[in-house]
Amino acid sequence: MQARCFREWVSYPNGQADVNHCHAAAGMGFLIGELLDAGLLHGDVLTVAGEGLARYREEPYLDQGVLSWRPAPNQSGDESVLRPATRPFAPDGGLKLLRGNLGRAVIKTSAVKPEHRIVEAPALVFNNQEELMAAFDRGDLQRDFVAVLRYQGPRANGMPELHKLTPPLGVLQDAGFRVALVTDGRMSGASGKVPAAIHVTPECLAGGPLARVHNGDIIRLDGERGILEVHVSASEWAERQPEPVDLSDYQQGLGRELFGVFRANVTGAEQGARVFATSNPTGTTTSMPHVASAHDHFAFAKGDVP
Question: Could you tell me which CATH number the domain at 95-239 has?
């Protein structure tokens, strides 16, 4: 909820201003106050500053060399950067859930211009980001396409940052091509400009449908209506099987074997990519969907188990 509201009322990092402009306009004290007054935050929480979020309506300053606190501004000094809740930049938040026959994903619409939020184009499938970068360097991506980057989820390789894909895709978009990214991996919160459906769930290694996409399949990413789908007949889609993929580079070398047990047991991105059981409010323990033994892990690392 905090992230959604932040995108509504603060132009940074999607506008021309940076975090210093945001602070100069009124800062986090004003923002937290607006969220609390609008009833969009739970104020009765324990924080590092003490009990309740009301403490964050204050800002620190030096009073003759002594740290002191004072109320934060109650009005924005620059509404092109920071606005009150009554005059948001947009009527909805900056994130949208996508659904369709490719699973569920999230897109950061606030960073994408409206004319780029809907892309329907042939898929180009990659199994790692290096493949995509190499194709760009060769000049093979001078066309409309949806880059499908598979096997980047928590179980496959720990869900690495994919932010470096934004510049090359942005170059292609600026050249007039219709481009988008669909992946079960993640990207930085500062990533933007190019429409990207990330955290596709279920991930490919867990049987997600993204693993069944072929080069040339027409994919529609609609960031306005919340649609993520591949245009393949239901009968053909049901018959398709995931293509074999070699993930050994993610599992062996540089100590990666030590983390195999975590990759084998981690939940999906929607469940928090966690590896430990948790307790719910009723006090009962939420078990993991699958728990591999240490023996299974080491057998898998040595290649004895497919």
Answer: 3.50.30.80
